[in-house]
Amino acid sequence: MYETLAVVGATGAVGRIVLEQLQQRNLPFKKLKLLASERSVGKEVRFNGEAIKVELLAPGAFKNVDLAIGSTPDEIAAEFVPYAVKEGAVVVDESGYWRMDPKVPLIIPEVNPDAANKHEGILASPNCSTTQMVVALAPLHQVARVTRVVVSTYQATSGAGLPGSEELNDSVRSALVGQTHPPKTFQHPIGFNLIPQIGSSKYEGYTSEEMKMVYETQKILGDDGIQVCPTCVRVPVTNGHSESILVETEKHISVEEAKELFEAFEGITVVDDLPNNQYPMPRDCEGKDDVFVGRIRKDISSPNGIAFWCVSDNLRKGAATNAVQIAELLMKRS
């Protein structure tokens, strides 16, 4: 039984949505503990009508905690997760630090729920751009085996946290009056601009964000043979990541079959009516938990290719919602 639940990073953008999801999904725990850095200690957060004070994230904070959901930077997760596990907590971690550890299952509940059974105290939630793509790939992979993916992402500034969203607003205001706002969060001004770099230079000209999409996709789907060619771009959108995805499969599937597979898969909503200008857009998908798919069409350059457009709220399914769903999965199986 998981009676005491801790939320780490409870006052951040993702942490707040975690708390919202916990209330909406009515997970069966008895006590909630909120943990954060020193600057948030003592703040009160309301949950189910009760005011809960934020406590300091430190060794000893996980005494009597059964399950923890962590939304922190990598360096914080590297430090707190081991002592949380040592104190007896199972941790669902949203950072990137533990994702590729071979002992840590990387979970999307709609895609690979059984992998959660193999945890040793730590379960990881994937990168936001990976999560929505793999949810969309999964029904195709189950039927026809995905062999190659070419993906270009159009990632919102909220993916860089609250500073990213604030920088977009400041950058746009400056651009409107003919000034340049000096960037701090991004490499260049983001207002009315696109930046084809997310993360650091990593491998053969690819960035760290792009390589996450390669390795995490292979791990979640359990197939190192899937080839992924990603290009990740930061765009001047506040919230909601979009992706242009081209999939090649071992077995041929038609556009009609692909659409039926998407429609039948848990967590996917199809919005696909080009003649009537209907397709997923970030402004329509914000605040929703599904992955939205549209512009489904045959790849006219490949006999076994399907192209489509994919949008999801990166703070929800890309982060908070997926983590809470993992916690929910664990509780149902306890």
Question: Which helices and strands appear, and what pairs or packs with what?
Answer:
Elements: E1 4-8, H1 13-25, E2 31-36, E3 44-47, E4 50-56, E5 67-70, H2 74-86, E6 90-93, E7 122-124, H3 128-144, E8 146-155, H4 162-176, E9 201-203, E10 206-207, H5 208-221, E11 227-234, E12 241-249, H6 255-264, E13 268-270, H7 282-285, E14 291-298, E15 305-312, H8 316-333
Helix pairs in contact: 1-8, 3-5, 3-8
Order of helices and strands: EHEEEEHEEHEHEEHEEHEHEEH
Helical content stands at: 25-40%
Low-confidence stretches: none
The CATH architecture term of the largest domain is 2-Layer Sandwich
In which order are the strands of the major sheet placed?
A: 3-4-2-1-5-6-7
Please outline what is shown here.
The chain is an alpha/beta fold and about 325 residues long. It is built from eight helices and 15 strands.
Q: What keywords describe this structure?
A:
six-stranded mixed beta sheet; Rossmann fold; seven-stranded mixed beta sheet; globular; Dihydrodipicolinate Reductase, domain 2; alpha/beta; 334 residues; single chain
